[in-house]
Amino acid sequence: MNSFFQLIARHRVLASSLLLMIFPFLMPYEALAVNILIFGLFAMGFNLLFGYMGLLSFGHAAFLGIGGYLTGISIVHYSLPWGLAILIGVIGAAIGGLLMGFLATRTRGIYFSMVTLALGQIVYFIFYKAESLTGGENGLRGVRVDNFEIFGIPVDLLNPLAKYYVILFFVVLAIWLISRILNSPLGAVMEAIRENEKRAAACGYDVARTKLLVFILSAAICGLAGSLRALHLSIVPIDSLNYLQSGQAVMMSILGGMGTFFGPFVGAAVMLFLEDIVTGYTKHWMAVVGIVFMFFVLFFPKGIWGSILSKLHISQDTSQ
């Protein structure tokens, strides 16, 4: 069993892709699988900053919302092709990450978290007040994608399974990018800063520039998740920018295992699957999810996936 997980660790992008390819057949219905796919990507982008850099942001919902809104505005108001609209959403989120990161990375600890929360709320009210473009409290509606063809094969995004695999293509690209980042010298610098920022600076690394770069990369990945969510829902709800979405990313990352490659997806899957089941029985589903979250934090502090890797004595720095 240990050698099996070691093999997965060496080929984590391929293993993750293969698992996600069969994932919709393991879920009760495809729409839930799509939700987990999108929020798993969102949590993965957040984990790049939180798990690997040690910077806790409470404002990452801003990038989920920026990506979604810019993609939606591009399609609804300017009739741009959906592929170009996604690119605009990602670039817009990256620019937002540059501006927010430039201000936030000048602080440390709880001050960093509070600054990101405040900046995230500013972004929320900017989009909330731009009612002519964003729809205000009603959200942006009508984000529809016409049928298209891939190698002569017609694709209908109204088909949940077809939508899942189109979104999966972008998610796999993001997973590959994250893996390349973590395997690069930048990934080593990130972990060095997480473990001891002063020592990393003494070794000659530009800590401030690295923090800002990772903040931008994290924002771009979260923006991609927002763009894909806009295509999935055909609307961009204003709660995409709500600080509670940032809280969800934190919970998913901790639940799955912060600082692990695949942990955020595990956390997203457990949290959203549990939410889907519990809401069928009670409207107080948040209390149940909260109790489950507390249980794992108390008894599995490394998260679900992190605890499995630790039990098998697989290094989290090189594992999925």
Describe the structure.
- The chain is mainly alpha-helical and 320 residues long.
- The protein is built from 15 helices and 4 strands.
- The strands form 2 sheets. It has a two-stranded antiparallel ribbon with strand order 1-4. Strands 2-3 form a two-stranded antiparallel ribbon.
- Strand 2 (148-150) and strand 3 (153-155) form a beta hairpin.
- The longest helix is centred in the C-terminal third of the chain and has 27 residues, at 207-233.
- The mean pLDDT is 90.
Task: Indicate the topology.
Blueprint: H1 2-10, H2 12-22, H3 30-53, H4 61-76, H5 82-104, H6 109-129, H7 131-134, E1 140-141, E2 148-150, E3 153-155, H8 160-183, H9 185-195, H10 197-202, H11 207-233, E4 235-236, H12 243-256, H13 263-278, H14 285-299, H15 304-311
Antiparallel strand pairs: 1-4, 2-3
Tell me briefly what this model is.
This protein has 320 residues and is mainly α. The chain has helices at 2-10, 12-22, 30-53, 61-76, 82-104, 109-129, 131-134, 160-183, 185-195, 197-202, 207-233, 243-256, 263-278, 285-299, 304-311; strands spanning 140-141, 148-150, 153-155, 235-236.
Number of helices: 15
* Strands, total number: 4
What is the residue-averaged pLDDT? Answer: 90
What order do the helices and strands follow?
A: HHHHHHHEEEHHHHEHHHH
Structural class of the helix and strand makeup?
mainly alpha
Poorly predicted sequence stretches spanning 5 or more consecutive residues: none
